[in-house]
Amino acid sequence: MLGSVVQMCTSSFSSQKDLERVQAFFSDKSTKGFDQGLAQSCDAIRAKAAWLGRDRQDVKQWVEAYKGKSVKSEL
Question: What's the pTM?
Answer without folding.
Answer: 0.77
